[in-house]
Amino acid sequence: MKLNYDQFVKKYFPAQQITNLKESSTLIFVSKQGQIIKEQNFTENEWLLWREHFRQEIELQNILNEYEPNYFLKILDWAEEFQEQLHKVLIIYENQKDSQNLELYIKNNTISQEKLINIIIQILGIGMALQRRKIFHLNITPKNLIYVNGFIKLTDFGSSRVIHKQYYSQKYSEERNYYYHFYQSTSMLKIKMKENLEEQDLLFQEIVQNELLQNQIFQQNDEWSLSLIICQIITKQFDIKIKHYEDFFCFNSFRIKEMMKQVRNSFPHFYIFCNKLIEQRLGLKVAYNTLIEITSSSKASISKIKPLIMRLDPLNNYLEREQATKMIEVAKNYYYVSKAEIQIQEEGQIYYQLNSNNLLTTAPNNSKKSIDDEKQHKLQILHQGYNLINTFFVREPLSVNKLNNSQLKQLHLNEKKQQSPKFQHQHTIRDLQSFKEISGSEVNSMQQSFINQNIYRDSILYKKSNQLKLATIIQLFWDQDFMQNYLLKQFYIQSSIHGEYEFKFNNSQSHLFNYKSKILRIQDKKQIYQGYEKDNIPYGIGIKLIREKNWKLIFGVFENDQILQSIMIEQNKQRSIQIYQGKLNENQMKEGQCIFDWFRLVNNNLLKYQKHIGLIKQNKIYGYGVRIYYEYFHSQINFIYKGNFENSQKQGKGQLFKEQDGNLDLIFDGEFKQDQYSGVGLAYFQKDLTIQATFLEGKINQFSELKYKEHSVTIF
Predict the structure, then answer these.
(1) pLDDT score, position 436
(2) Is the per-residue pLDDT at 539 higher than 60?
(3) What does pLDDT average to over the chain?
(4) How open is the CA angle 39-44-46, to the nearest 5 degrees?
(5) For residue 128, which of 44, 46, 72, 208 has the smallest C-alpha distance?
(6) What whole-number percentage of the chain has pLDDT above 90?
(7) β-strand 2-3 against 75-83: which pairing, if any?
(8) Which residues pair with 577 in a beta bridge?
(9) Beta-carbon count within 10 A of 603 CB
(10) Which residues lie in coiled coils (predicted)?
(11) Using DSSP, how many helices (H) and how many strands (E) does the chain show?
């Protein structure tokens, strides 16, 4: 809340000054009760320009504190005073008397490895909390991270930008909109010139991005800052010497990647984690989960490398589940590789970078230890182990199924491109020839025929004269009452989804598709129906909304109280829906041949993340089927499961394939139980590592054989 200056003095004085920030108009005090007080001075013109943004900054920081009190510092009060052409603004933070900014805490204390990891985990948590709410801080520095009583809290949102987001405060009875506008310093960097003009000292905590930065790099900016801070707290180096500061006049993450590589080699227990941030393909969430897994997977000393060989299931990385991502854990059998072994692998590359680019003045690698062939194999396995997103499993190294160029030309899209401001999809379904080539399971003729029809679109059923577009039914019968449901409203707005669905009919059903009458509308507490009718009951095509706790919207072909064909939308979870294509019996239960599509609401866009083609009985998927998993952050990567289902879960024999850049590779062949690897399985990792093992509840229970290329690898 805002106080006048007299109220401020009465409540918080006397206050003792503890620091004066160098080259700044900011003073730091401690109140008589122990609160931290920050005093900033503005000219009259500056305050007129910044006052409204300043208020919004305080409100934003307190909203974040309300949701994540352990991640964001709370502002208790603020006050302003005008004197001698200057505006004095005072901000009072929550009681943090013994707090220190992260830079001072790291420099002044001896910190154990366990505590260091805990600090890094909290920093990552802060980054993810910001990204979930589409907030870009743009000034994350060690001095804006406050350490107190074991918690790291972020403050100073003066440079932040919020992208079209509504925030809900539990203190209010309804949602309120908060919009914040971006302001920055006109200089991108503050360079401190030294007496030796040949060398300049860049203080990273003074980096300020200018207002010309584009939206698309705001998130990269925060990730870059977080990566840099992690390097700084590990190395206790809070300034880095460079030779050409002009290189920093454009946003570039190259230097932070180079530093991360050096940290990775100096601190082997962070090897996997550092590579995640270097590659920046998986984002903060995967890095966070990986670090959690490293610290919790074994009671062994964290000073040794304990890389996890592979993920439990590559699909888990792309499905947002409530539980933490599971990983395959080689029980008590880790590859321990020394620091020197890792340094040798990187020595050539680091030497080239240090001498050709001269970007960072760092000490060269002096390790000259040699390693034998077996250790080289282990080191190569380790390097493959960190890149968990590209996990490959196959039965035999020579049996990897690749599609040649002519086959790739025959592939065609069953899923249309869906575009949003941030995402673009390209979902590919195999033709019949390619499908048969990768199929190794015996499937009864009915199942195989149905699946083939939906992969190879060449029969009479798919000719234009025998189909009715879903978009046509929507134009005829869509009811405005359907728009009261937010998910249905998004479905209606996204016309690109409508084009994916259509009814196919043969001559025996043509009378229902071509039947026309006056439009019947039925509305009561249980349902809304709008469509064609006969004797005042639904007949022909129409739309029915069933009003239950788990609502259903059915686009159907109605006859004699049955729905002969249907496209049904149901709410799957809070922000996701499933679209079912198939038959509904007299009890409106799904049965027979079916196609499912699952969509998730992301940034007000429905994005497809799964597809299933197979059989269903009493609302449970069973028998042989094909399940496709789409990864919408990496549109060129899909996963395809072919095998048996029971109770809507992968159960029994199955094969898992990975599709990337048009290539299809078998990555696992074995037994599944309740969606997890179970029983004997054959796997292939990164095309060179063959694993045969017994799995239990998704984890490796016992190795049978482990080979790198054609060489056996010692496990110890």
Answers:
(1) 39
(2) yes
(3) 63
(4) 75
(5) 72
(6) 4
(7) parallel
(8) 571, 599
(9) 13
(10) none
(11) 17, 38
DSSP state for residue 324 in the 8-state scheme: P
**Mutual angle of helices 113-132 and 218-235, in 10-degree steps:** 170
List pLDDT tens digits, range 154-185.
988 877 766 533 333 333 333 333 332 222 22
Closest CA to 228 of 127, 339, 140, 159: 140
Distance CA 366, CA 385 (A): 26
Cα separation of 289 and 415, whole Å? 32
CB burial of 105-134 (b: ≥16 within 10 Å; e: otherwise) equals: bbeeeeeeeeebbbbbebbbbbbbbbbebe
Tokens of 172: 């209010």
**Which of 217-221, 380-384, 454-458 has the largest mean confidence?**
217-221
| CA–CA separation, 482 and 546 (whole Å) | 11
Q: Residue 691: left if φ>0, alpha if ψ -120 to 50, beta else—which one?
A: beta
* Strand, helix or coil for residue 244: coil
Secondary structure (3-state) at 658: strand
Q: How large a percentage of the chain has pLDDT more than 70?
A: 52
Residue range 392-403+631-716, CATH number: 2.20.110
> Is 263 within 8 Å of 252 (Cβ atoms)?
no
Determine phi and psi for 484, rounding to 5 degrees.
-70, -20
CB 321 within 8 A of CB 610: no
Task: Please classify residue 290 by burial: count the beta carbons closer than 10 Å to its beta carbon, then call 0-12 exposed, 13-18 middle and 19+ buried.
Answer: buried
CA of 156: how far to CAs of 52, 141, 405, 418, in Å? 15, 10, 55, 38
What backbone torsions phi and psi does residue 311 show, to the nearest 5 degrees? -75, 155
Q: Any idea how long the chain is?
A: 716
Yes or no: say if 124 and 292 are a contact pair by the CB < 8 Å rule.
Answer: no
d(CA 2, CA 55) in angstroms, rounded, equals 9
Q: How far is residue 291 from each of residues 123, 258, 275, 320, 691, measured CA to CA in Å?
A: 12, 20, 12, 18, 25
What one-letter code names the amino acid at 57? E
Cβ neighbourhood burial of 424 (10 Å; 0-12, 13-18, 19+): exposed
Residues of CATH 2.20.110 domain(s) within the chain? 392-403+631-716
Query: In terms of DSSP H, where are the helices of 236-303?
Result: 254-266, 271-279, 283-296
d(CA 538, CA 536): 7
Q: How far, CA to CA in Å, does 715 sit from each of 330, 581, 623?
A: 10, 49, 38
More confident residue, 530 or 86: 530
Contact 167, 174 (CB under 8 A): no
| Residue the block writes with tokens 């030796």 | 196
Instruction: Please give the sequence-ordered ranges of beta strands (E in DSSP) within 297-435, or none if there are none.
Output: 310-311, 327-328, 412-413, 428-429
Lookup: tokens for 614 = 């197979």
Per-residue CA distances from 672 to 546, 641, 693 (Å): 36, 11, 13
Alpha carbons within 13 angstroms on the beta-carbon side of residue 481 total 16
- CA dist 254 and 256 (Å) reads 6
DSSP structural state of residue 28: E
pLDDT grade for 639, boundaries at 50, 70 and 90: confident
Q: What is the 3-state secondary structure (H, E, C) of 172-232?
A: CCCCEECCCCCCCCCCCCCEEECCCCCCEEECHHHCCCCCCCCHHHHHHHHHHHHHHHHHH
